[in-house]
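Appendix B. Raw example, untouched.
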Amino acid sequence: MKKIFSLEAPGHQPPRVIESIKSEVRKYLKRERRKALPEGVDFWDFDCKAGLGEAAPEVKHVEELIPAIDQAAAAQCGTIYLEILAKPGHRKPKGGGSAPGDG
């Protein structure tokens, strides 16, 4: 998803507009995570970017998207650009020696 969201809508309260944007982002992430995984893939990972107003978008972690929307609202930007692209993710094995209790 690559989309520019307007933080202001005529006839709507600003907090309701913000909540609808957050809801749309959450729905998109949930929908993408439900898709079937290709063989050899552990989970869906996401490449995310967020840009306030006309500023260049910055790379963000998925967990930082909702706070970025709040930040845009606090800064009273007119728009926010969000880019969320799904990619296959592979879990890394946990490092360390033996498991606790082995001994």
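End of appendix B.
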